[in-house]
Every structure is written in C-alpha cells, then in structure tokens.
Amino acid sequence: MEGAVKIVYSRIYAPLRKQVYNSLTELNAAILIALEAHNNQLLRGRNYSRRLQFEEIERSALAPLPILHYEFKKQLHATVMKNGHVCLSVDKHY
Length: 94
Fold this sequence. Notes:
The chain has 94 residues and is mainly α. It has helices at 2-16, 24-40, 50-58. It has a domain at 2-61. Helix 1 crosses helix 2.
C-alpha cells in the first residue's frame, strides 16, 4: 500500500503542487486530469493499464449502489490518541 501512495504522490500531487488554484473545483479538475493520465498509463512490464484492467475485469464484478441512503444509527465524537487508537466507549473498547 505504501508503494501505491508513493506512486500517486509522485504522479498526481507533485506535478500540481506549484500551481495555484482559486477554488476547490479547479483543484479537483486538475487532480482528475492527472488521475486519468495515471490510470491510462501502461503498467511497467505489461501491455495494459490500470483503466483497461478495471474495465475488463473488475467493473463487471461491481454490484450496483444501494437505492436507499445509509442511515446513521449512532454518532460519536472521538479523539485519536498518540498511539493511533480511538476509544469508542466508556469501557475502553478500541
């Protein structure tokens, strides 16, 4: 996973970091263009891209989104501790 973050950082974030965007919409549009270029780039040592692999293999396996919206049953405000844990209840379950 860290390798994927490094690749996305170098191919999407790094090229955009020196640009100035006046709105979130502009930034999102620039990210989308860079992301599409990243997904359409052929994988090293292979003759297909991430996009092609998704379209041919993964898209058909996806289930449709549910019609009903997710309804929150309970909402909590929590703090992430220094060790990365989040205390979810009074009895110290994490």
